[in-house]
Design goal:
single chain, 303 residues, alpha+beta, seven-stranded mixed β-sheet, 12 helices, 7 strands, globular
C-alpha cells in the first residue's frame, strides 16, 4: 500500500467512526432511511474530495455537511409537494425502524433511534419548515452551537436561535411525550391486539384517549382504511373493521417502542406504532403502503 492509499484508508476509517451519528442526524432530518443513507454517502464523497487534513474537528465538519445536504433535500422535497396537489402531508408517516422484541440491540440502530425518536415526533418534524427542522435537530438533539448552524441556513446566530425556538414550541405542543415505562406500553399494545382480535369495541374504547389520532399512510392502496381519523369511537370502529388482521399481527419494536406488524398469509400488510401516555393510546401511526413496506425488510417479522 502506497502513501496515498494508506491516507485514503485512514480517512475512510475515521469517517466510519462518525457514520452512526451522521445516520442519526440524517434520519431525524429526513425521516427516510434510504435518503438518510444517501445523504451520509454524499458527505463521504465530499470529504474524500476535500482537504481533510485541514479539518480540525472532523465530527463537527461532517455533521454540518450532512445538515446542509439534508436541508437541500428537504427544500427540493417541499418544492415538489407545492407542485403536486395530490400529496398530503397530513397522512405521511416517516420510515420506521422495526426490530424484533427479542433481538440483541444493534449499536448503530440504537444510536439511530436514541432520545425517544418515535414516529409521533418525526411526524411533527415533517411539519416544520426546512430551516426550522435543521436548527432544531442540530441544536436540540445534537448540541451543535447556533453559530455553527447559522452559515448553513444563511441566517445570523440570533435568527437561527429563533428558528429553533419556534420548532421547539411546535414539537412541545404537538408531539406527546410517551410513558417512560416500556413494560407498561407493551401491556397496552398487547391489550389492543387482544381486543382487536376479539372485536371487543368497548375494550378498544377503554384503551384510547378521547382525542386519539390515527394516521394511515397507505400510498396508492385503496383498502377501506381511512387515512386520518380522530376521536376514540371513530378509531375503535376503524380497528374493529380490520379485526381480521389481528391473528396475523405480532409484537415488534417500532423505533424502540412496542408496535405491531400484520402479515396475513406471510405478506406484510402494515406496521403500526403507538404513542401511550398515562396508560392510554393517544396516537397511532400506520404504514400500509405496499411499496414502502417492501423496503423495510419485514419478512423476518411474519407471524
Amino acid at each position: 500500500m502506497n502513501e496515498n492509499e494508506a491516507a485514503a484508508a485512514a480517512l475512510a476509517a475515521r469517517f466510519e467512526e462518525h457514520r452512526p451519528r451522521l445516520n442519526a442526524v440524517a434520519y431525524r432530518m429526513l425521516g427516510s432511511l434510504g435518503e438518510s443513507e444517501d445523504a451520509v454517502q454524499e458527505a463521504w464523497l465530499r470529504l474524500s474530495r476535500s482537504e481533510a487534513g485541514a479539518v480540525e474537528n472532523l465530527g463537527g465538519w461532517l455533521t454540518t455537511v450532512v445538515g446542509r445536504i439534508c436541508l437541500d433535500l428537504l427544500r427540493s422535497r417541499q418544492s415538489r409537494r407545492e407542485d403536486s396537489l395530490d400529496i398530503s402531508m397530513e397522512t405521511h408517516v416517516p420510515d420506521p425502524v422495526v426490530s424484533r422484541v427479542d433481538a440483541v440491540v444493534d449499536p448503530e440502530q440504537e444510536v439511530l433511534i436514541a432520545d425517544s425518536v418515535g414516529l409521533a415526533l418525526l411526524v411533527v418534524l415533517e411539519t416544520l419548515a426546512p430551516a426550522e427542522r435543521l436548527a432544531f435537530v442540530l441544536h436540540d438533539m445534537f448540541a451543535v452551537p447556533f453559530d455553527e448552524i447559522a452559515p448553513v441556513v444563511e441566517r445570523s446566530a440570533a435568527a437561527t436561535r429563533q428558528l429553533a425556538s419556534r420548532a421547539r414550541r411546535r414539537v412541545r405542543d404537538s408531539a406527546p411525550a410517551p410513558d417512560a415505562d416500556l413494560g407498561r406500553q407493551r401491556e397496552v399494545v398487547e391489550a389492543w391486539m387482544a381486543a382487536t382480535k376479539a372485536g371487543d369495541f368497548d375494550a378498544l374504547l377503554e384503551l384510547l384517549d378521547p382525542d386519539v389520532v390515527l394516521r394511515a399512510d397507505t400510498g396508492e392502496l385503496s383498502s377501506g382504511l381511512s387515512k386520518l381519523v380522530r376521536g376514540a369511537a371513530t378509531v375503535a370502529g376503524q380497528a374493529a373493521m380490520f379485526g381480521r388482521m389481528a391473528p396475523s399481527s405480532r409484537l415488534v419494536l417500532v423505533n424502540g417502542a412496542p408496535g405491531l406488524v400484520a402479515a396475513p398469509g406471510g405478506e406484510p400488510f402494515s406496521v403500526a406504532s403507538f404513542t401511550v401516555v398515562d396508560g392510554r393510546i393517544v396516537e397511532i401511526n400506520i404504514i400500509a403502503d405496499p411499496e414502502r413496506l417492501r423496503g423495510l425488510g419485514l419478512a423476518s417479522f411474519e407471524a
